[in-house]
Amino acid sequence: MDFNQFFGKLSAVSFQRLALRARYANSCQLSAISATRTLREQLSAFSD
Description:
Layout: H1 3-47
């Protein structure tokens, strides 16, 4: 295996890892946003 093949495999693995991390962060962000939204709805219903 030459250097280019090794580097190609390495970058492919790191790219997959980055994509997974981005997807995980995105889902956490979305759940936090939805939790904040439901909390705000509950508070507004409570204050009526």
